[in-house]
From TrEMBL:
Pathway: Lipid metabolism; glycerolipid metabolism; Glycerolipid metabolism. ANK repeats lie at residues 868-891, 904-936. PANTHER family: DIACYLGLYCEROL KINASE, DIACYLGLYCEROL KINASE ZETA. This is Diacylglycerol kinase. Keywords: ANK repeat, ATP-binding, Cell membrane, Cell projection, Cytoplasm, Kinase, Lipid metabolism, Membrane, Metal-binding, Nucleotide-binding, Nucleus, Phosphoprotein, Repeat, Transferase, Zinc, Zinc-finger. CDD domains: C1_DGKzeta_rpt1 (cd20849), C1_DGKzeta_rpt2 (cd20895). GO terms for cellular component: cytosol; glutamatergic synapse; lamellipodium; nucleus; plasma membrane. The lineage of its organism: Eukaryota, Metazoa, Chordata, Craniata, Vertebrata. Residues 283-298 have a biased composition (Basic residues). It comes from Aegotheles bennettii. Pfam families: Ank_2 (PF12796), DAGK_acc (PF00609), DAGK_cat (PF00781), DGKI (PF23578). It is found in: Cell membrane; Cell projection, Lamellipodium; Cytoplasm, Cytosol; Nucleus. Residues 810-823 have a biased composition (Low complexity). The keyword rRNA-binding does not apply.
Length: 975
């Protein structure tokens, strides 16, 4: 801290330099209010005599003025320090190429710039519709605030700040750059930097807890707060409260650890931008012209090989640097979102979009990095592409490849335990699996094609190809029925791409083509035109006896989106279990019967396991190589082992945190409660873990060994369900699980995530659960149990006395009353508290639910209306009783959801939105109520929530309204 004048030092001796610094920093962070600031300023005068106070009062104003001036000056310098903290240790050298690019040419970049004009600390922008985040430049510099109109927003993938598009230029005024992804190579920089500094960013919303005090950031209801609550690092993700007691000034310049994934992050100190080689100003006159020509040609060759960036890795034996290749065409829009997420977790210069170019240049750039690993995000074709480039570059040793499966199929990913497709597993966990995965080998096979000289010229097909689409396969090579169906689909899609933009239509086309091919029997004569020799043994006669319609040469156990055509040949001693690293290939024949049985666990006809194959065809036959189809002319095909690729196999990971605060790392037995979450609740409340836990329904308690994986837990849960059907059910809920239920990971900080059923054997129960095990049921099956509420079946208090106001509930049976009441009168009463709301407990919800059910069992009609046309659901919404609302929804006809009262034309959802009852709105919406229905004023439920000043509820209703519209369009398309 800079020293002030002598008078200032005299009045601050009692506090000491440390206290002055803390008070000044507190003012800079905005954490000290006027009262505490006044106490701080006057703390040096306490305990003095009145005479000294009178003399001191004369100079108090001067001290305050000097202190204010110092605080303002410190505030500016402090913000500048944060803005520059991550850049000062790697000062950008002046680049002559940057001077050639004018401001008008500077564009808003959405990709990483690898050219020589790359800007140091440049943001990577993508469009966003987020409305809760304020513009990062602040109100003073915000163009939207100045123009008083909404503007488009963009978000940086690397540091996650949000600004209006016109405000991007304002970031330079406040001197805020993105986290640096490279460094400049100084010509005389002997001591090159090896340390990465933090990149501090102010946050108005922050998950997790403060690293200093361990407390949360208290922002549950501060979605539109302008207050900066946290300061976090874009590299290591550490976060502190935005106050001086938590965030110290020394944190600005301390080294950054790069966080939990430091082992796979490529530090910016490894990536150097180099200057273009310059021609020497002096040339030797003594040299002959021929020598000058040779030198010129040599310089020209060097300049041709020059690249703007080079990689200089530091020795780090424990590191496993990662390159991520993402195919944006795989899995719909998943690819683009995954690119943005990986740029947040990693260095943006280790994440590559394959839509912008192939993987070759990136692999060449990083070829000297030790322990390099690759993550291929896409389908099996993307993996094959990368493996082929690795073959071309001849890297030694070749880096192992992990897979993040996108789209459908993904048989290689299933084989290596990565699953059949990416759902919503946290990318942070995927990075941990890539780091910890085992390296295994994958056989790769050559396909050498030659024309068949003995083929009949009369059967020549002009449309047939002379070569296969690929000359190497990793998964399988097949011919016959399956290849014909795939080929017809590809040809039809190329001719009319606009007709194949729906996954549902694609599946229907596949099914129709397969059925048509089955009826016509176009592949039934396959055996007549094929000759097969495996390891010198002629199997042609065996094929002619079998008469298969499809032949498959299989390298991995999985085929056709997860089926296992080789099966388990344990009882057959002629064959060995299939492996992907044994140097053998499996030959399988399929009849139409075995193809149908394949989908229900059957297998094909095992022909042989061999190391070399010679396949001869006498006519043009449809074939496919790893899903790439063609119609190949009569040929002689040689299949032989090419090499073995290194792959990363996903393995089990041990959680370091013991369950239920047990002192032992792994307890011997776990007694854990299992609770079910419906898909409706999961989709609506995934942003709020606590509400999702409240919406869960307990199923029972299981006891398993402490080191159990999820497969064992599944067995116990299914056994628990079977026992629930007995005379003394152990199941706490009347809602049975459907066959498609899956486990949920509840241990992450932000939300719950689904666990792929195919990967349950890779996850320990202690990894995904802490005090309760949650399961997700996408197809909820409800068994009717009279007298209990599905939400809390065993917690009904029947001893409570009815209190409060009443609303009536007439009977549909004449035996219940001496004289039936008209539909607009209400002789029978149901108690409820008029003052209760969605969140209050003025009346016991369990008791009310019990009383309501008793009346319903007595024969009362749930569709009755009062004189104003309001249903019992309208009254239940007004009462705020969630149990009554839930019971009515589950037992009344669906027409009650959109029933309107006469005065304002409001549905029960309109009233719930106006009363800001979020949980009740969720129940009604997920039951199927229309979100597009308007009242007599033309308002939808979303509009009513906006008028009630509940933007979060309005946003939820708007989201579900769009979902309903999409569902309606999909249903119309299907019809």
């Amino acid at each position: 801290m800079a020293e002030g004048p002598g008078s200032w030092r005299d009045f601050t001796v009692a506090r000491g330099d440390g206290e002055v610094a803390r008070a000044a920093a507190a003012n800079l962070l905005g954490a000290v209010d006027a009262e505490s600031a006044g106490q701080a300023q006057c703390s040096g005068f306490r305990g003095t005599d009145p005479a000294w106070e009178m003399r001191g009062a004369v100079v108090v104003s001067e001290v305050e003025e000097q202190f204010l001036h110092l605080a303002i000056r410190k505030q500016v310098s402090y913000r500048k320090a944060i803005a520059k903290s991550s850049l000062q240790h790697m000062v950008a050298q002046p680049n002559p190429a940057l001077a050639l690019r004018s401001d008008s040419e500077r564009q808003i970049r959405s990709t990483v710039d690898w050219s020589e004009t790359a800007v140091y600390g440049e943001h990577i922008w993508f469009e966003t519709s987020v409305s809760g985040d304020f513009c990062y430049v602040g109100e003073q510099n915000c163009m939207a605030k100045l123009l008083q109109k909404p503007l488009s927003r963009r978000k940086c993938a690397a540091c996650k700040i949000v600004v209006h598009t016109p405000c991007i230029e304002q970031l330079e005024k406040i001197n805020f750059r993105c986290k640096p992804s490279f460094r400049e190579s100084g010509s005389r920089n002997i001591r090159e930097p090896t340390v990465v500094r933090h990149h501090w960013v102010h946050r108005r919303r922050q998950e997790g807890k403060c690293r200093q005090c361990g407390k949360g950031f208290q922002q549950k209801f501060a979605f539109h707060s302008k207050e900066i609550v946290a300061i976090s690092c874009s590299w290591c993700k550490q976060a502190y409260h935005s106050k001086v007691s938590c965030f110290m000034l020394q944190h600005i310049e301390e080294p950054c650890s790069l966080g939990a994934h430091a082992a796979v992050v490529i530090p910016p100190t490894w990536i150097l931008r180099v200057r273009r080689p310059q021609n020497p100003l002096k040339s030797s006159k003594k040299k002959k012209r021929t020598s000058f020509k040779r030198k010129s040609s040599k310089r020209g060759a060097e300049e041709g090989r020059w690249k703007p960036f080079v990689i200089k890795p530091m020795p780090a034996p424990l590191m496993k640097p990662l390159l991520v290749f993402v195919n944006p065409k795989s899995g719909g829009n998943q690819g683009a979102k995954i690119i943005q997420s990986f740029m947040w977790y990693l260095n943006p210069r280790q994440v590559f979009d394959l839509g912008q170019g192939g993987p070759k240049e990136a692999l060449e750039l990083y070829r000297k990095v030790h322990n390099l690993r690759i993550l291929a995000c896409g389908g099996d074709g993307t993996v094959g592409w990368i493996l082929s480039i690795l073959d071309q570059l001849r890297l030694n040793p070749p880096p192992p490849v992990a897979i993040l499966p996108l789209g459908t199929g993904n048989d290689l990913a299933r084989t290596l335990n990565w699953g059949g497709g990416y759902t919503d597993e946290p990318l942070s966990k995927i990075l941990s699996h890539v780091e910890d995965g085992n390296i295994v080998q994958l056989d790769r096979w050559n396909l050498h094609v030659e024309p068949n000289p003995d083929a009949n010229p009369d059967e020549k097909d002009e449309a047939a190809a002379d070569k296969l689409p690929l000359d190497v396969f990793n998964n399988y090579f097949s011919l016959g029925f399956d290849a014909r169906v795939t080929l017809e689909f590809h040809e039809s899609r190329e001719a009319n791409p606009e007709k194949f933009n729906s996954r549902f239509r694609n599946k229907m086309f596949y099914a129709g083509t397969a059925f048509s091919d089955f009826l016509t029997g176009s592949s039934k004569d396959l055996a007549k035109h094929v000759k097969l020799i495996c390891d010198g043994t002629d199997l042609t006669s065996k094929i002619q006896d079998l008469k298969p319609q499809c032949l498959v040469f299989l390298n991995i156990p999985r085929y056709c989106a997860g089926t296992m055509p080789w099966g388990n040949p344990g009882e057959h001693h002629d064959f060995e279990p299939q492996r992907h690293d044994d140097g053998c290939i499996e030959v399988i024949g399929f009849t139409m019967t075995s193809l149908a049985a394949l989908q229900v666990g059957g297998h094909g006809e095992r022909l042989c396991q061999c190391r070399q194959v010679v396949l001869t065809t006498s006519k043009a036959i449809p074939m496919q190589v790893d899903g790439e189809p063609c119609k190949l002319a009569a040929s002689c095909i040689h299949i032989s082992l090419r090499n073995q690729a290194n792959m990363v196999q996903k393995t089990k990971r041990r959680n370091s945190m013991p369950l239920l605060n047990d002192q032992q790392p792994v307890p011997e037995r776990l007694r854990i409660r299992v609770s079910r979450i419906s898909m409706r609740d999961y989709e609506a409340l995934h942003y709020d873990k606590e509400k999702l836990k409240e919406a869960s329904v307990p199923l029972g308690i299981i006891v398993v060994p402490g080191d159990s994986d999820l497969e064992l837990c599944r067995t116990q849960i299914e056994r628990l369900q079977e026992e629930g059907d007995g005379a003394k059910p152990k199941m706490l809920s009347s809602q049975k699980l459907s066959p498609k239920w899956c486990f949920l990971d509840s241990t992450t900080a932000d939300r719950f995530y689904r666990i792929d059923r195919a990967q349950e054997h890779l996850n320990y129960v202690t990894e995904i659960a802490q005090d309760e095990l949650y399961v997700l049921d996408p197809e909820l099956v409800i068994t009717q149990t009279v007298g209990t509420s599905p939400a809390m079946p065993d917690l009904v208090d029947s001893s409570a006395a009815p209190t409060g106001h009443h609303f009536a509930f007439p009977s549909s049976s004449s035996s219940q009353s001496s004289s039936p009441a008209p539909s607009d009168e209400m002789p029978s009463c149901l108690p409820y508290s008029s003052s209760s709301t969605a969140g209050s407990s003025g009346a016991s919800p369990g008791w009310l639910s019990h009383g309501f059910q008793e009346l319903h069992r007595a024969g009362r009609d749930l569709m009755v209306r009062d004189s104003s046309g309001q249903t019992v659901l309208h009254h239940a919404v007004k009462s705020g009783s969630k149990d009554i609302v839930k019971y009515i929804i589950e037992n009344a006809p669906s027409e009650i959801l959109d029933a309107t009262e006469e005065e304002n034309g409001e549905t029960s959802l309109h009233q719930a939105a106006a009363l800001r009852q979020r949980t009740i709105c969720h129940y009604i919406v997920e039951a199927g109520a229309s979100l597009m229905k308007t009242d007599l004023q033309g308002d939808t439920p979303k509009h009513r929530a906006e008028k009630a000043n509940d933007p979060n509820l309005a946003a939820y209703l708007e989201n579900r309204q769009h979902y309903q519209m999409i569902q309606r369009e999909d249903q119309e398309t299907a019809v």
